[in-house]
């Protein structure tokens, strides 16, 4: 539980830059020392190669994990140590860390016990609205984390479809529907169906629609929801199978953003499309070198069945544009190993040909402190996607070149001249086998006043 200005709590955490107060304070940047005599935690933030915000995040995370009881946070002492950082951003970071670390995450352990302490921020009363917003958006960061963390034997496409329908239907103004295989066939969403062929569960394309700004543009959010990715007939080696339950993260993020915006009653029109299916191997699974006609009429040669994410996204983008009249499209996906190799766990890759979309995202990310890095889509990447198949309009996997860029280039063929931005978040969205709910905050900030 997080509050503001409830001062009568047992413990306190203050920010310091050295150990002048007590020589027992560890002065390592980002460290936290508890002094029992004063019932006070001392968080060290000082000039260092490590940024002050990172010191704050690491120190607060350590504090919350080792908390001894109800604690006040001396906000002003921390703000004074973060020169040049707006106090609203400092406040956001404190809320983010506390709400992240105190979340009762998905677990199947028999005797797991959760700590339930009060954490209070001592600050001015004009932060109450900001606290309310932080609680809302972090509610859906944690919701996305929970969706990510379900084990694959539980987190099937049917499970996610039913759960999201049930949860989202409770939010006023948010319309929710599910497209299963019969409807997908009627819509000619053949790329989704091709990926789903080897699964023993139907695809569940979850559609959330919200209209709260008459006569304004409609935003599309499209998320890759591969509940488990074996690679299909282009089977992944065992070292790369680990963590493939997280291949539905894009859809988890998109659904969570949509629910947060609707609950906040944002002045926006959007359609959110979460494309949930498996990519499995079996006698019915799609074969390499198959040619499939997409929803927008382009034929695609499937040269690699492990490049399935861009297939479901392609039909999802077409659906948002043609069936829901979207004017602007954002897609989010754990799409390529190439982008993961380029950026590691440091940032999400962003691909767009629209400078203004990148600038707006970059500005929102500066406020949320999540990190994104722009990567290119060159004409050569588009030409490769077209020319690497002799028999079809496009290939889903080029013979050479940067995989992240050619994957993004593939998706541009389905954007139909709409403003389009693709986020590839393969490694930042989880730490080990724990989901992080990354990107929810930034997209919420970007779109809440769109």
TrEMBL record:
InterPro entries in the cross-refs: Leucine_aapep/pepB, Peptidase_M17_C
Signal peptide: none
CDD domains, sorted: Peptidase_M17
Domain Cytosol aminopeptidase: residue ranges: 304-311
Record-level GO cellular component terms: cytoplasm
Pfam families named in the record: Peptidase_M17
Alphabetized PROSITE patterns for the sequence: CYTOSOL_AP
Cross-referenced Gene3D superfamilies: Zn peptidases
Keywords attached to this entry: Aminopeptidase, Hydrolase, Protease
MF annotations from Gene Ontology: manganese ion binding; metalloaminopeptidase activity
A GO biological process held by the record: proteolysis
Domain of life: Bacteria
Family note: Belongs to the peptidase M17 family.
Function noted in UniProt: Presumably involved in the processing and regular turnover of intracellular proteins. Catalyzes the removal of unsubstituted N-terminal amino acids from various peptides.
Protein name: Probable cytosol aminopeptidase
Natural source organism: Mesoplasma tabanidae
């Amino acid at each position: 539980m997080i509050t503001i200005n409830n001062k009568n709590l047992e413990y306190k955490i203050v920010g310091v830059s050295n150990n002048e107060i007590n020589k027992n304070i560890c002065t390592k940047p980002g460290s936290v020392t508890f002094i029992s005599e004063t019932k006070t935690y001392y968080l060290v933030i000082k000039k260092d190669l490590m940024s002050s915000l990172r010191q704050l995040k690491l120190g607060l995370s350590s504090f919350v994990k080792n908390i001894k009881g109800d604690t006040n946070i001396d906000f002003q002492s921390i703000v004074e140590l973060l020169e040049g950082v707006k106090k609203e951003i400092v406040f956001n970071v404190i809320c983010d860390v506390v709400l992240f670390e105190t979340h009762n995450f998905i677990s199947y352990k028999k005797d797991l016990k959760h700590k339930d302490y009060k954490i209070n921020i001592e600050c001015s009363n004009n932060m109450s609205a900001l606290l309310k917003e932080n609680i809302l958006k972090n509610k859906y960061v944690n919701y996305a984390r929970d969706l990510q963390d379900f084990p694959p034997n539980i987190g099937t496409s049917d499970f996610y479809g039913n759960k999201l329908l049930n949860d989202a239907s409770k939010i006023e103004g948010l319309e929710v529907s599910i497209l299963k295989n019969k409807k997908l066939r009627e819509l000619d969403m053949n790329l989704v169906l091709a990926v789903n062929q080897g699964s023993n569960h139907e695809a569940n394309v979850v559609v959330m629609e919200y209209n709260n700004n008459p006569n304004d543009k409609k935003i599309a959010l499209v998320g890759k929801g591969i509940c488990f990715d074996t690679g299909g007939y282009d089977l992944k080696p065992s070292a790369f199978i680990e963590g493939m339950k997280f291949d539905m993260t894009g859809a988890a993020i998109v659904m969570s953003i949509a629910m947060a915006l609707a609950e906040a009653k944002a002045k926006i029109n959007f359609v959110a499309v979460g494309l949930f299916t498996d990519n499995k191997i079996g006698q019915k699974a799609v074969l390499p070198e198959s040619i499939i006609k997409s929803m927008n009429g382009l034929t695609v040669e499937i040269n690699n069945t492990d490049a399935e994410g861009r297939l479901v996204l392609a039909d999802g983008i077409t659906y948002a544009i043609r069936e829901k009249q979207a004017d602007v499209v954002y897609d989010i996906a754990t799409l390529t190993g190439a982008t993961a190799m380029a950026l590691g766990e440091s940032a999400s890759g962003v691909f767009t040909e629209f400078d203004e979309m990148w600038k707006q995202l970059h500005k929102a990310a500066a406020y949320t402190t999540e990190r994104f890095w722009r990567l290119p889509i060159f004409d050569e990447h588009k030409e490769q996607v077209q020319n690497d198949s002799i028999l079809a309009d496009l290939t889903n996997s080029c013979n050479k070149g940067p995989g992240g860029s050619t994957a993004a280039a593939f998706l541009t063929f389905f954007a139909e001249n709409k403003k389009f931005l693709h986020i590839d978040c393969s490694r930042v969205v989880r730490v080990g086998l724990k989901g992080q709910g990354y990107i929810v905050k930034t997209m919420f900030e970007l779109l809440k006043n769109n």
